[in-house]
Amino acid sequence: MTTPADQREVFEYALIRVVPRVERGEAINAGVIVYSQQFRYLRARIELDEGRLRALAPAADRDAIRAALGAFTKACTEGPLAGRPLGERFRWLTAPRSTIVQPGPVHTGLTTDPAAEIDRLFDTLVRS
After folding, report:
1. Confidence (pTM)
2. Would you say residue 97 has pLDDT above 90?
3. Strand-strand pairing, 107-111 and 9-18
4. Which element (helix H / strand E) includes 81?
5. 11-53 pLDDT tens trace
6. Which residues constitute the domain of residue 34?
7. How far apart are CA 85 and CA 40, in angstroms?
8. How far is CA 49 from CA 86, 119, 124, in A?
9. Number of domains, the chain
């Protein structure tokens, strides 16, 4: 379904956080995942700030964290969830978990371009 360029549609997003010491509750925003049913869009954009991670948790397993972050990106387009509807994949990816890499709460907005939204959100909420 195509949407006229001037028609804004609902989208949902969540930050992807690295919480190296869950008991402390300190988090680093390492990515964002954006979903729009109307635009048939589901993407994650990830970038780990290694310096911030070193400052919060010098002994953190960076390879394991990078692999967990990469799984969010891959799950949007491939893997065992690839055949599932986009909304179902988004709900699975944003389900609360108590692990080092976890999604934040889901937020909503209106957009005419979800690809532009993921860039805007990433630049605003993830990049230092």
Report:
1. 0.90
2. no
3. antiparallel
4. none
5. 999 999 999 988 888 899 999 999 999 999 999 999 999 999 9
6. 9-126
7. 10
8. 28, 17, 14
9. 1
